[in-house]
Amino acid sequence: GNSVTQMEGPVTLSEEAFLTINCTYTATGYPSLFWYVQYPGEGLQLLLKATKADDKGSNKGFEATYRKETTSFHLEKGSVQVSDSAVYFCALIVGGGGNKLTFGTGTQLKVEL
Amino acid sequence: NAGVTQTPKFQVLKTGQSMTLQCAQDMNHEYMSWYRQDPGMGLRLIHYSVGAGITDQGEVPNGYNVSRSTTEDFPLRLLSAAPSQTSVYFCASRTDYNEQFFGPGTRLTVL
Questions:
Q1: Cα-based distances in Å from A88 to A22, A30, A47, A97, B64
Q2: I need a labelling partner for A28 at 20 to 30 A (CA). Which of A58, A103, B13, B82 fits?
Q3: pLDDT exceeding 70 applies to what percent of chain B?
Q4: Which residue in A89, A93, A105 is closest to B41 by CB distance?
């Protein structure tokens, strides 16, 4: 089956630090990969996506590259802000239509001044 | 567009009571789904629908019913609430490109 593994949190960083949140996956077939962000008290929002190997998704200074050889989709940001404090979810889907998104368990990020 | 809306935002029930969580979307998405979010367990799929009149079970369907009479609406019914159903519930709809939009959530407590 399909699964997503994320690094355990919480991750605590100082403002302007470099961020990496690891995500690895197993999938039957060729998945599309996503990062979602959940701010306190809100629903999840799509942050970025990549649909094929070597694609790089980017948004709001965050980036992630679809690495088929290592089955990974690590999230990075060069300089985090306090406003980036949230829970980040990696997810995948194989195909579309009625197929289901598979989510990781989420990684909480806390950014301090 | 309002996106995905959910009501109520908060609800407290007693064990054995029933209720319906409402979900609506105005983006004309065919695919809709319900998740519950519990600490340390991420998101778990309860039920989903690929279009009006079509529903199917997810990972944790027991104790919940759904129906999809229109493209816009996808209500979730709790038949006889139990403390194990205390959770935050999210409704979502999805584009043809697999981009999923979530509602703001309903925080349910069952006493």
A1: 10, 22, 9, 25, 27
A2: A58
A3: 100
A4: A105
Quick check: A100 and B58 CB within 8 A? yes
Structure token digits, residue A2: 């399909």
Better pLDDT: B75 or A28 = B75
pLDDT tens, B17-60?
Answer: 999 999 999 999 999 999 999 987 789 999 999 999 999 999 99
Residues of B in contact with A88 (CB under 8 A): none
If you measure CA to CA, which chain A residue comes closest to B32? A98
| Residue of A46, A47, A51, A66 to mutate for B, most B C-beta atoms under 10 A | A46
- So what's the pLDDT on residue A97? 64
Q: Do the chains contact at B98 and A106, CB–CB below 8 Å?
A: no
N-terminal to C-terminal alpha carbon distance within chain B? 36
Best A103, A107, A108 residue to mutate vs chain B (most B CBs within 10 Å): A103
**pLDDT, tens digit, for every residue of A58-104?**
999 999 999 999 999 999 999 999 999 999 999 999 877 678 899 99
